[in-house]
Every structure is written in C-alpha cells, then in structure tokens.
Amino acid sequence: MPAGVRMGARWSFLETPSSFPGHSDLVRGTVPSVTSTPSRRTVLRATAWTAPAVAVAAAAPAYAASVATVVTGTLVSTRNPDDVTVTGTVTNLGTTPVMVTLTITIEADSEQATGGSGNLNGWAYVAFDFTASGRGVRFIGTREITGGQTVPAPQITADFAQTASGTSTMTITTPSPATATSPAPVPFTAYASTARQSTTPTSPALRDFSLER
Fold first, then answer.
1. How far apart are CA 195 and CA 200, in angstroms?
2. Could you report the per-residue pLDDT of 99-151, keeping only the tens digit for each?
3. At 37, phi and psi to the nearest 5?
4. Residue 91 and residue 71 in contact, taking contact as beta carbons nearer than 8 Å
C-alpha cells in the first residue's frame, strides 16, 4: 500500500520528515500529539452536577411569597344598665396591606333587643340590623389595614333590658392568602348580677348609625 494512505483508523508514516514540508513532527514510528478535549459524557456530567444549585435558587422567591398575612383582634364587651357596648382592636401582623371584613354581633340568650347604634371609627359601613332571632344586633364593616398597623374596631351598642344576658362576638375575615384569627366570644350577664360597671353613654348626635323597634 502506498505510504501515507489511510486505512481504517491507522496511518503509516514511512517517509522522512523532509517528504512532508511543514510537518517536522511526522517521523517514522510516531504520531503527532493531539490536544485532548472533554467528551460529551464529561460535559453532560458537569452540567447535571450544577443543576441542583440553579433549581434551589429559583425556588427561593416562591417560598418567600407563600408566607401569608395574619390578622388578629381583641374584643371588649361592657354591660351597662340599658345596653351592652362592644369595642376592640384589629391588627395586621403582616407586612402588606389587607382588606378586612369585620362582623360584630351582640345577642341575648332569650330576651329581645330593643335597638342599637354604633360609631364606625374609620370603617366602611356595610350593614347594621337586628339578628335573625331578634335577640340582638349585627354590624358588618370593611377596612384596609396596612402591614403592622393596629386600628380600633367600630363601637357597637345593643339595647337590652337589665335582665338580659348573652354573648358578644367579633368575626374577622380576609381574602386568601391572608388568614385571620378572631378573638374568643365574650359573655355578658344581666345588669343586676354584675359589678354595675358602666361607661358614659354615647350621645345620639355622635352616633354614626342606629336602629329601633
């Protein structure tokens, strides 16, 4: 076979370097050195090794965004001679604003409510009426509360006879993903069996809304 002819993957160099000008590295019995390059398998292995770090970095923002805002409240119920007055606070424990819907109900166990009134204290009015049983009143209002802010709840009053006893409740609701924790209901007793703790009655001229039978 003529010298320098390729056969398969082998070469036979039988000529002297002078026979191949510019190729002094071709000598009998030797092959030119070849710079090694990474194989495709090596490249894929290196890529697969770094992939988890990229995946973790991309997942971090989603985890941070999943933290929900929590809204809580406090409830104070005061028994007066002719009524029960409810006050309290609502707090946004998160860092972003959230629209809160507040429902305050004052209801007697057996006696009818004769009327009611209230002050908004910065809340938007939605509804105020007697409960379905007629034994109390219910207020519904809304307000946007910024992150870290505590605001006063509306002041709601229900008119009862001194013998009436029952329960005052505050229910806090928020749109998802925010969550709310409502305060525990507060019972009230007949005025004659209390320590006769009373607050100064609210002047009708200062009330934002009222109802009577």
1. 16
2. 999 999 999 999 999 999 999 999 999 999 999 999 999 999 999 999 999 99
3. -120, 150
4. yes
Question: Alpha helices of the chain — where are they, by DSSP H?
Answer: 40-65
Strands 83-92 and 155-159, how do they pair?
A: antiparallel
pLDDT band at 207 (very low <50, low <70, confident <90, very high): confident
155, 118 in Cβ contact below 8 A? Answer: yes
- Conformational region of residue 33, where left means phi above 0, alpha means psi within -120 to 50, and beta covers everything else: beta
Distance CA 109, CA 112 (A): 9
Strand partners, 143: 100
Which tens digit of pLDDT belongs to each residue from 24-61?
A: 444 445 444 555 565 655 544 545 445 454 444 444 44
pTM above 0.85, yes or no: no
How many angstroms separate the CA atoms of 72 and 95, rounded? 14
H or E element at residue 2? none
Residue 161 to residue 213: CA distance in whole angstroms: 14
Q: Which residue has the tokens 């057996």?
A: 110
Rounded to whole angstroms, the Cα distance separating 3 from 206 reads: 114
Q: Tokens 């941070």 label which residue?
A: 64
> Tens digits of per-residue pLDDT, 149-182?
999 999 999 999 999 999 999 999 999 999 999 9
Closest CA to 164 of 112, 98, 122: 112
